[in-house]
């Protein structure tokens, strides 16, 4: 028997998948609302984030825990399938197919199982859309905005019913991309059909990204598809709820996938992500901080999004009204103390939540801390992106299921790109200043190390 010291250490990919598991468990445990199991899972995920950021092993992706996908399929049954036999059967089939794809040694069975798994998932999404009704303001806003646009009216001058406690109506408070991409769904019968297509496109991009990275290391590409099954239940919930995060997952995934071979197309995808929702902003901070290439892409994408997507609606609506609809309305909404954010814990113990100044100071401190940490590949950059988004949502006034699901997908992208080189990921000038300061304090020995 091997000793503990001689055992193979757990690698970066395994730690990332475990962190992803904990994040998904937090969502499944509370549905995005404050529960003690959900907060415990969030704490576990944060610890795993820190472990992954100091872990430098580069072990093959093939040693990822094979039963992670089936475990999440089982969680989907427990969370949403009880009492609806047809959904229980479809989710159980997903668990069996994911287990076959993970454990069998026959390549044909692996690929057939994965194909059947994805087909079953598509059927399950259709069943959810048909069986489970939902009445939240996201769907009302998206549908109403698309209908106004179809009738030649400005969606940003409309008023839509809200389900937020204490708020009766809200304006159209999402980016221009959401209303443009919601129109095909409305024409087909429901706005969630557009969400389903975008969700599938996002998963396809992440799977292709993982397959490319795995093939570069000489491994079978089917193993890259297995971790993607982890997020199938999460994507199902995003589509069912009509949340706008699918308008970010899809373009971000395709940006990462094509940026090496088709840089101009990649910038267009990044611009589409900027035009979807402001939730993409926290994830770009570490990428812009470290990578000169991402900084250039961000500048071009932001300029393109402003000119092509935002300017027509700004001119149509008026700058002040458009700014209020997309930014000011969120600042004016009341705090929601039962979401999966730090404020909920503070309210439970009778403590005041962090104000805007404390939140900004904390996020700046995280940015400064990141300048001490040197990313070595694309996975490191995306890991830092997911970590910063995690902290930003944790200290926000509220953070529901869709917020944490977005962190999950960025983390999945980090897990899919372990070992993928990012030659332009250079130390930021602030980081070099820290190195000179530490070298001055500790002498030439530190500099040599």
Encode the helix/strand succession as letters: HHHHHHEEHHHHHHHHHHHHHHH
First-last Cα distance: 36 Å
What topology, given as strand order, has the largest sheet? 1-2
Which stretches of 5+ consecutive residues score pLDDT under 50? Answer: 1-9, 58-64, 440-449
Estimate the global geometry from the Cα principal axes: globular
Largest sheet: 2 strands, antiparallel
- Work out the oligomeric state of the chains in this entry: single chain
Number of strands: 2
Concise structural overview:
With 449 residues, the protein is mostly helical. The protein has 21 helices and two strands. The protein has helices at 12-30, 36-54, 68-81, 85-103, 107-131, 137-150, 176-188, 192-216, 222-228, 232-241, 246-258, 263-274, 281-290, 292-317, 319-332, 342-348, 356-372, 378-394, 401-416, 429-442, 444-448; strands at 160-161, 169-170.
Can you walk through the features of this model?
Helix 1 packs parallel to helix 3, helix 2 packs antiparallel against helix 18 and helix 8 runs antiparallel to helix 10. This protein is mostly helical. The radius of gyration is 22 Å and the shape is globular. Strands 1-2 form a two-stranded antiparallel ribbon. The N terminus and C terminus are likely disordered.
